Amino acid sequence: MREFQVLGITLTDHSVKEAMKKVETYIRNGQVSTLCYITASGLLEAEDHPETKEFLENMSLTIAADPEVLKVAGITSKSRIREIRENEFMRQFLGRIHRETVPVCLLSDTKESLKKLENGILSFQSKLNITGRFSLEEASSEDSLINDINVLAPAIIISDLSYPAREEFYSEHHMKLHAEIWLILKHDMALDHGSLSLLEKLKQFFSQKALKRSVDQYNKEESAALEEEKKKEQEHTETLLKFDTQEFDTEAIEKGLAESETENSEEN
After folding, report:
1. How far is Cα 87 from Cα 75, in angstroms, rounded to an integer?
2. d(CA 203, CA 45)
C-alpha cells in the first residue's frame, strides 16, 4: 500500500492482491464500505470542486482506473500499470462475488445509463446474481429508493452516478445502505480498455494530458510557496539572532531601573 497526493488530494494505491484482502475484510465488518475508481478526469473535477475532493478522501479504498493517475504521482511499477490496464481488480472482484452468488444491485442516473452499466459489468462476469436495478430518474424519491434497495438486502451495490448526484447521494445516504460494499464507478468510465472506441480513446488521452499539465502546475506553485515560506522563516530567524547579539549599554539600563524604583518609592 502506498499513500500519495495528486492536486492536494490524499489517496492510497493497493496492488490487486492487497485490495482483494481488504474486500474480504469489508464483507465481514458489518457496515457499508465504499470502493471508488479514480480517473484522470475525476481528479481534474476534484481540483475545481471541494465536495468531490472530500468525497474521494472519504473512500474506504480507491482504485486507479488508468495508469496516468499513478504516473503523475511518480508510481511507475510495471506490475501495477499492467493490473490497471487490464482492470484486474474488477475481474477478481466480480469473480469473487460470482463464485459465492452474492446478491448485487445496480444504481445509475437514468434507465439508459443503467443498461449501459449492466452491459459493462456483465462483459466481465456474465453470471452475476443481479437482484435489483435502480435509477435516480425512475425513483419517486431518494428515500424510497434507499428503502427499495434495502428490502433486497444486497451484499454489493455497484453505481456510476454522475457529478454532483454521486457526491450528494453519498453524503446523504451511504450510512443508510444495508450492504457490505458499495463499488463506485466514474460516470461513463471505460471498464474494458481493450474495447474503447476511437472517440473514447481520444477523450481518455486528452484527460490524461490535462491531468499531467495540472499536476505539473500545481507542484510548481506548491514548490514556490514552500520556498517563500522557507525564506520568511529564515528572515525571522536572522532577525531574532540579530536581536540576541545586539550590544546594550547595561550601565544606562541599570541606572534607569534604579531611578524608576526610587520614583515609585517616593510616590508610595
Report:
1. 17
2. 15
> Which residues form the domain of 106?
2-195
Q: How many domains does the structure of the chain reveal?
A: 1
Cell numbers standing for residue 73:
504521482
> Residue 167: in which H helix or E strand, if any?
helix 165-173
Q: Is residue 204 part of a domain?
A: no
Give the three cell numbers for residue 68.
496516468
Domain assignment present for residue 46? The answer is: yes
202 within domain boundaries: no
Note the pLDDT of residue 268: 53
Could you tell me how many helices (H) and strands (E) the chain has, helices first?
A: 11, 8
Cα first-last separation, the chain? 73
- The answer to whether residue 10 sits within a structural domain is yes
Q: Check if the beta carbon of residue 12 is closer than 8 Å to that of residue 1.
A: yes
| pLDDT value at residue 143 | 95
Which pTM value belongs to this model?
Answer: 0.81
φ/ψ of residue 176, rounded to 5? -90, -15
